[in-house]
Design a protein that fits this description.
The protein is mostly helical. It has nine helices and three strands. The chain is elongated, with a radius of gyration of 56 Å. The protein starts with a helix and ends in an 8-residue tail after the last helix.
Length: 236
């Protein structure tokens, strides 16, 4: 019995530390949850305060008549998102610029001064927007495009002979009409063709009838001569 009592006391003493450890774990978990909740509430308050500050700055920007755009200081992603939302609610246009997350910033534009693609490209390159310089660049691009188009048109036209080519060699090749007639005659000789003008009968009707009657009398005389040389005629 004494041994059992000793064993029981040992087991009891061994079970107590885990219970104490569980209590410590629960206490730490509660403290951690409380810290997280406090941080969340603090972050929520900071977001509300930041939004109020951005709303005030945006309102001042809208009332500033001589300010078409405003650039804000670099912000983190959450702050930029809040500013974009404030600008949209106020009826403004906003863009973020900057490659590095730490230096990325927001620019807000009034609707009547919405940026062009060229202006946005300048900001993306980290350059200041200069309307006069942009206009000069646009004019140079148009001039270059016109010159390129003119060069393409000149290159597309096939190179032709000089304007005085025919006059210079007319004594050798003759006029266009003479060359065309010569080509026609050569073709007629090669293929046995006779020009239509040569086929036209230029005789009068009376001459044609006399020729027909003469041929008819000649054919009758030949027929009669052939009949006289038949079986009843002299032998040859």
């Amino acid at each position: 019995m004494a041994e059992l009592d000793l064993l029981g006391s040992i087991l009891s003493s061994m079970e107590r530390p885990p219970a104490a450890a569980d209590g410590e774990t629960r206490r730490r978990a509660r403290e951690q949850a409380a810290r997280v909740k406090k941080l969340q509430e603090q972050e929520k308050r900071q977001k509300v305060e930041f939004r109020k500050r951005m709303e005030q700055e945006v309102s001042q920007f809208i009332q500033a008549s001589g300010e078409p755009r405003r650039r804000f200081q670099p912000m983190n992603k959450i702050e930029r998102s809040i500013l974009h939302d404030v600008a949209e609610v106020a009826g403004l246009t906003s863009f973020s610029f900057g490659d590095d997350e730490d230096s990325r910033y927001v620019m807000v534009f009034k609707k009547e001064f919405a940026p062009s693609d060229e202006e946005l490209d300048a900001y993306r390159r980290g350059e200041e927007w200069d309307p006069a310089l942009a206009e000069e660049r646009r004019r140079l691009r148009e001039l270059a495009a016109q010159q390129e188009e003119a060069e393409l048109e000149r290159g597309a036209a096939p190179p032709g002979p000089p304007n005085d080519y025919k006059d210079k060699y007319r004594h050798l090749i003759g006029s266009d009409a003479a060359k065309a007639a010569a080509r026609t005659m050569e073709a007629n000789k090669a293929y046995g063709c006779v020009p239509v003008a040569n086929k036209r009968d230029t005789r009068s009707i009376e001459e044609a009838m006399n020729e027909i009657r003469a041929k008819k009398r000649l054919r009758q005389a030949e027929d009669e001569g052939g009949a006289g040389g038949g079986p009843g005629g002299p032998s040859v």
